[in-house]
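step 3/5: co-fold with cytidine-5'-monophosphate
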Amino acid sequence: MDLINIALDGPAAAGKSTIARQVASKLSMIYVDTGAMYRAITYKYLQNNKPEDFKALVDQTTLELTYDKSKGQRILLDDQDVTDFLRENDVTQNVSYVASKAPVRTFAVEKQKDLAAKKGIVMDGRDIGTVVLPNAELKVYMIASVEERAERRQKENEQCGIPSTLSQLKKEIEERDHYDMNRDISPLKKADDAITVDTTGKTIEEVTEEIMNLVNNL
Ligand code: C5P
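step 4/5: write tokens
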């Protein structure tokens, strides 16, 4: 099969990164987590006491993606590996705001397009099928009930030692989705030619197989 790109979009905690990682590994493709890029810029925004000049912020930022055999994608922000800080609560609470800013999106989208130029990429995010890779060979829009998404995130947080409660996570996920879906620039929405995959009640293996079937039918 010729090299392809796969775009995976959807609301928060729908299972995108877990599935994207599985699919990329099965197809020997590279997985790119674009949420981590917005999270890294948000980390810098917080470290710099929330400056409102986002153009200046990104103009003074270098962001690089590297791959570690055991740890997967790592994010180098100004030459420092910040990957382990990107799931912290203050980053999660501010990332939608930072990601709504034009200079931030221009900066991140340009890098994402470059990464995918040679193909062989599975990229997950909110605007991949609509803006970043409008010509991706396969576009998937992944959804799941908010209850299940909160439960999954709770388990992930437990594993990473991040404190949270189910009701707090449900509220945070709903608020973040609302913000992401209603922002002016590149809001989260299903591309017209994306295939919706509902992961509610399905195992990682079942969803991975569903997507592998879509790939095999291209
Ligand atoms: O996927 P993740 O939950 O890490 O994304 C964090 C936030 O980054 C999202 O809630 C959204 O505000 C932003 N984002 C975005 N566009 C993307 C990926 C993430 O705006 N392609």
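step 5/5: annotate
The chain has a mean pLDDT of 95.
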